[in-house]
Amino acid sequence: MNLNNDWFFKWNIITNTCMALIINTAATIFAGGDTLAGWVTGCCCAFTINTIAAIIIPVGPISMKFSRGVCGAKEGTFLDLLLRNIVVNLIFVTIVSMGMALIHVGVGPNLIPAWWSTYPKLYVVGTVGAMLIEKPIAMFCSGHN
Fold first, then answer.
1. Global pTM?
2. What is the tens place of the pLDDT at every residue in 74-86?
3. 71-115 pLDDT tens trace
4. Are 83 and 71 spatial neighbours (Cβ–Cβ below 8 Å)?
5. Would you state the pLDDT for residue 110?
6. DSSP state, residue 20
7. How far apart are CA 119 and CA 135, in angstroms?
8. Tell me, what's the pLDDT at 4?
9. Which of 17, 102, 112, 129 is most buried, taking the most CB atoms under 10 A from its CB?
10. 108 exposure class (CB count in 10 Å sphere: 0-12, 13-18, 19+)
11. In this structure, what is the dihedral angle of CA atoms 100, 119, 55, 70, given to the nearest 10 degrees?
12. What does the alpha-carbon distance between residue 51 and residue 55 come to, in Å, rounded to a whole number?
């Protein structure tokens, strides 16, 4: 996988946009709905939190070390895809969902219950969503149709 700066920038922006749309839509549905303004605001917040986290945390290398180094998965296999996305979403869905819970509930006794009420479902949605979009986005960013 080519991780030069241009490729990473495209990958990061496109992936984070897709994941913000996927996860925020799921969160909105799980919460019983929202206004269009609330949904758009949520997508923008989720995108921002995820993008900052992606710039700071080397999630790609961490996930590859787990998948290929610790678990011995071969690059390009379904097991590699699954294991990498388990780690990636463990990091990102945790950070984004906690950030969104902080925005909506604030620091206090309701923070952890509010976060945990959606986290497991959002983790599954995020992991499946990331697995579905990874290859098309990689092909697009590499310029292969």
1. 0.82
2. 998 999 999 999 9
3. 999 998 999 999 999 999 999 999 999 998 998 899 999 999 989
4. yes
5. 93
6. H
7. 25
8. 61
9. 129
10. exposed
11. 170
12. 6
